[in-house]
Structure formats: structure tokens, C-alpha cells
Amino acid sequence: MEDTIAAISTSLGVGAISIIRVSGSNAISIVNKIFRGCDLTKVASHTIHYGFIVEKEEQIDEVLVSVMLSPKTFTTEDIVEINCHGGIATTNKILELLLENGCRLAEPGEFTKRAFLNGRISLLEAESVSDLIEAKSEKQRSMALSGVSGRTTNLVRELRDKILDVIANIEVNIDYPEYEDAIEITHENLKGKVEDIQKDLELLLKNSKVGKLIKSGIDVALIGRPNVGKSSILNALLNEEKAIVTDISGTTRDVIEAKMTLNGIPINLMDTAGIRATDDVVEKIGVDKSKQIIESADLIILVLNNNEELTDEDKELLEQIKEKNHLIFINKTDLEEKLFLKQNEHIVKGNTKELNGLEELKQKIMELYHLDKIQEKDLTYLSNVRQIDLVKKSLASMNKLLEDMKENIPVDMLEIHLRETFDNLGLLIGETYEDELIDKLFKNFCLGK
Question: What is the pTM of this model?
Fold first, then answer.
């Protein structure tokens, strides 16, 4: 990280302004070479200066330049931000001049990566920066901002401190048995400490499921036989003509995806091809996709026809979804009733012509996932597979420790499980890390961040 990096931090295109960010030990001197105004090497930190970017004697653009001196910057290095007029040609020309004068083009996420490697932010906070940029709802924004502010990181650090205290006591007992001020760690007092840690991890894991829900949303598949009204339901939920609707069976040949929100949670809707036996090659591909989606979706909405008796295909679908999260929408209630199912909490009746039952359907989804109970305040949740997996591993180590205690395994041998938990939580916030993992994580960031 000895070189100085530069990148465009705003979306490239026509706009009022663009920002080019420069970070590194030579950031100020390099920008000063192409800036005509004051001498940037002599200005105070966190100040803004008017002038021009020039190439030899030619003026390229009228700009404002922000100078921020190490260590009180995002990367903890010297940072210069050039605010120029928006536009592809102007922005690229200024970046080109920076590269010609000693900068290197930053890799995706390299500014945030430097902030992490320089100890400015934890790995959780770094991942939350990416989440904040991509947030599409108020809850996603609140959760990401909580991560950026370090709340979740602090929770994990407090948990590691608890574990470290126990490990330290065990080590003192082993190495300095004559030291009378140290608490003697026995099975009896270790159990209480481990159970406290276990409860903290269980709560973190429980909250992480909510975090994943806020970030990724719920994958909801509309399934059923052809012509039962799946596409009409999709259009009605979205209040737009997303899917083609006709009276011809098999109109939907592929999966149609769309998004909506319920109480700030993304709902990823999938309208599937009608499931039936068919000799049509293209339709068969769609049917096979529908069957695959039944296995992968978080929630299945099976659509049945009110004016048709239950068919063998309907019965097969009912059997297939009974162990999964599901709702049954009995459509076309404006027509003569020929379908009779015993009413239960999974069933909603309605029709898309009069828009009956759709609000009830939304409410059922909210109740099923407790969306009305998700709090927007203090959203100290984890939100991705890497984070959740490390908490699961940590919890498994604590569970194994308690099992070993029942077998009267000596305390000094139980320490290995505490160390596993301590290390996994270290990986969670980046106190310990592998270079390959860090490179992979930051490659998912946008350029200039």
C-alpha cells in the first residue's frame, strides 16, 4: 500500500458534478502538479480550494479540491477529492492526468480495503459500507448504517473479551497454580460463563436471520397449473402489467421475476410456468424450472382455481409444498365455486378482477415472517452468509464444549473450543483474516469506494 491510488467515486455519466478521489502518501503532491490555484502542499487539513485542473498551459476544468491530511481520513492516508463538472470526457481526462503524474488506478473497493487494513474500520464495517451503497429500503439503510457506525462490531468485540477473560484465567491456572489472586476455573464456574457466551451467540444468530431477511428479502414463488391466474396475481400485487395475461393455457413459458416491498422488506416475486404434463419442448423446460423453484424458494404461493374441482396435479402440488413455508390462494372467487378445501390459516380466497384477497395475502406473508415486528432502531444484525456461518461455527464450538464437560473432560482441554470461538469471531470482524478472503470481499465493491 505504498503507492497512491485514484478512481472516479461518482457514477460515470452526465451530471452536475463528478468526484475523483486520490489516496496515498503522494496524493497532495500529485494533484498539486495539475492544479492551478493555491499551493495544496501548504494548506490546512479538511479545507476546500477553488482553482483549475490544467495540462501544461491548457485549462481542463474549473474545480473545487478538498484536502484531508492523514490520519483523520477514511483510509488514514492523505486524501484529495477533486470536484469537477460532471461528464464522461472531463472526468476521464482528469483521471488520465492523475495516472500520468504518478497515481495508480484503484482496484474495486481499494479505498475501503485500505481503511480496513489500516485499522480505520473493522471487516463488518467495511462490508456494511457496501450494503449502505446498495440499500434500496429504509430498513436496509438503517441496518447498513448501524454496521458502518460499528455497533455490531462492538457487540462482537465485547463477546471476544468475555471469551478472552476465561482463556486467560485457564492459562494462569495452568502456568501459575501458585498465583492466589487468579480465579480457579472449574467445571462448575466454567459452565455458567460458557452458557452466557452461548446465549449471546444464539441471540446474534437469531438476529442475523432478520438481517439476512432485510438485506436479501423473501423469494416468493407463484406456482400452480396453467391458467389459474398466477400472472394476474403478480400484476395485481405489483400494480403494473409485468406479465402477459391471456386465456390461453401455457402463456407463461419462463420464470418472470419482479420486486415489491412489505414493511420495508424486499419481496422477490417469481411467476412460474404452469405445471402440467406437456409434449411441448419449450413449455416442458419452463415446467422443469418451476419445479426447481419450488425447492429453492423461501415461500410458495400455490394458486388454485375456485371454479374447478381439485385435480390430481393440484393434489400432487399440495403434497409437494406441505413441508415448506406456503400459502394457498384460491383465485376466481367471482366465478361459481366448485373447489372445496377445509379452511385453514394457509388459505386466502380472492380474485384479481375485483382485487379481492390481495391485501389479505400480503398480510399473511407479513404474519408468516413477523415483518411487523422487525425494529428499525438499533438494527445490529449480521447480513451475509460469511458472517452467519462464522457465528454458527462459534456456537457449535460452545455446544461441543458443554457436551465435553458432561464427559468430565479436563478444563485445560476444553480451552480449545473457547479458542475456536475466539478465532471465528476474530474472522467475523477482521481481527484475524486471510489475504485471499480480503481480496475476494473487496472485489465486490464498486470502483472508487
Answer: 0.64
